[in-house]
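Journal club prep, notes for RB
We'll compare a predicted complex against what the paper describes. Inputs for the S-adenosylmethionine case:
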Amino acid sequence: MSEKVPDTPLEVLVHLLTRAKEAAEASGAVPEEVTRPLQKALDIASGLDVYLETMSTQQSEPLAELYNKTVSHDWDQVHKEGKTKFRLPKECITGHVEGQTLKMLIHMSQAKRVLEIGMFTGYGALSMAEGLPEDGCLVACELEPYLKDFAQPIFDKSPHGRKITVRTGSAMDTLRELAAAGEQFDVVFIDADKDNYINYYNFILDNNLVTLRGVICVDNSLFKAKVYLKDTTDSNGLALRKFNQFVCDDPRVEQVIIPLRDGISVIRRVSAASECARTQSKITDDEVFRGVKGLPILHRLRLDGKVAYVTGAGQGIGRAFAHALGEAGAKVAVVDRDQDKAEAVAKELLLKGSNAVAITADISRSEDVQRMIDSIVSRWGSIDVACNNAGINMNSASEDTSLEEWDQTFNVNLRGTFMCCQAAGRVMLKRGYGKIINTASMASLIVPHPQKQLSYNTSKAGVVKLTQTLGAEWMDRGVRVNCISPGIVDTPLIHSESLRPLVQRWLSDIPAGRLAQVTDLQAAVVYLASDASDYMTGHNLVIEGGQSLW
Ligand SMILES: C[S@@+](CC[C@H](N)C(=O)[O-])C[C@H]1O[C@@H](n2cnc3c(N)ncnc32)[C@H](O)[C@@H]1O
């Protein structure tokens, strides 16, 4: 069996230490003070890759199949038969630990679009695709059409394979086509012909192929240590040395070389503002250009560290609101009259990595409302976002509506919402900051029919007026009060026997042609909870698929 050619600085080290140890043993005259540390150095160096392999999360089945198929393939024969232009060494493959690293980077950067330059048999491509969200996509550039046919059947076996599109031909041609089509990527992985690395890199930056907050990763940037060994004559080693220096001197970016396998450079663009200052470009350097507090718009919607509560969060709209606020980074108190439901939703949030607590409270009882506010403040120190969502709906013809129904509806929908606004508002006014979001209803604007719900409609109209009044009164003290008015939401309630026949009737009244899903309302609550909506108060944000327009 031919000896394995060392492929990384560490493998070179192991190779050299092994040779030294063999020479020492053969000579028989090397003292123990030398052979013992030599053996220790060899153990450390030769154990590292094995340890990293063992301790990194195991590869998926399709990746394992891709790896085995690649390393057992006769690439020399394929080349001899003229099926590939170049002789491809199986060592080209990124492999398990590097694949897992790339997948992790994709997760961490929350990338949705990835570009790979140099796919080989697709190990890196599939690893990165595994880290992408369901609607993510990866474009892989590969010179050899043979490799596309090799990889595709295994991509097809993976649920992530459909995210990958392989573009065969010269990578530079593909880059030009992508740039002409205005494509942009969050992560670009350069792993093709080494002497073209600088050209790929410059083309990507000059044509904005990588997004402003994107990352370029470069493989083999240590090139078996040849980038820093003085006696290097190897053309690829010299190309990589030149490339690393070029990137290091490039004021457009920051870079770090991670000494994993044969080296991975991670390169990110520095802010546009400093690039403009450097090039003295004529720009209007204001918050529109830089972003408020330097944040791009999507980051301004984040709620990291904010304390929120949602009433009626045990199901339906409230549950969706609680998830949305948690996903945006807030700590969420999940409040419901039903303890089991509140606990179940709080558990869902905890499972997703949010900080959550369940609180049982009936918001029509003033002592429950105060207890809810006090327990949130004592647990998390304050309240930034109050989502007063709990409500009830009863149907009756107006001439038959009992005072009991009227009082019950108003006690929860309007009196309860007022008590929550007041108790949360007192905490917020003291700090001079807060966001109150009430759930009103499209019924505050129109009279939904044919169902009869006088007390519900009037209570929700009251919620809008409550919102407008508090919004105007508290705005100059830092507390914004807005409400969301959903149309008819598709909840299990709607499918009850009595309401089911009405659904068809409602649908003919909705320009959107469907009922609202609770997920249709989630972005609105995050927007109203975030600093991005700071200039908005007393607003009734109607989300009803156009129903109130007809
Ligand atoms: C090191 S391998 C890539 C390994 C791959 N990233 C992986 O995850 O296993 C380099 C690949 O780049 C391809 N390549 C080389 N020059 C190219 C070019 N000019 N355009 C496109 N692909 C190229 C080669 O055919 C080869 O498959």
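Talking point for the session: The mean pLDDT is 95.
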